[in-house]
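User: Sequence in, structure out. Go.
Assistant: Echoing your sequence, followed by the structure tokens.
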Amino acid sequence: MPIQDKPRGLKAQRDAAQEVATSALAFIAADGERLVRFLAETGLSPATLREAAAKRDFGAGVLAFLISDEAMLVAFAAEKGLDPRHVVGALEILVPPVDPDATVRRPM
């Protein structure tokens, strides 16, 4: 379900946002340069990527990486038929509440 379908309820919104994050990871992985940059910036390796992907805040990290590069964000949004603002909205849904151990933190 694309995020622009405005799912009702927190779980439905989170599921839709997670779908966007999963699509974003596939988009990143489909291009060798993007994937190398993602791994370098996150400190992950191909061997640790699967373990990291199982963590609750991983999707938020993927979207934060994507959004940090406007050209990449626009390319992803165009490929998926999304408004870039919906990708940013997905990040806002997935960013965990303040947690000192979280990889991605909600801005204050």
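User: And one key feature?
Assistant: Residues 10-29 form the longest helix (20 residues).
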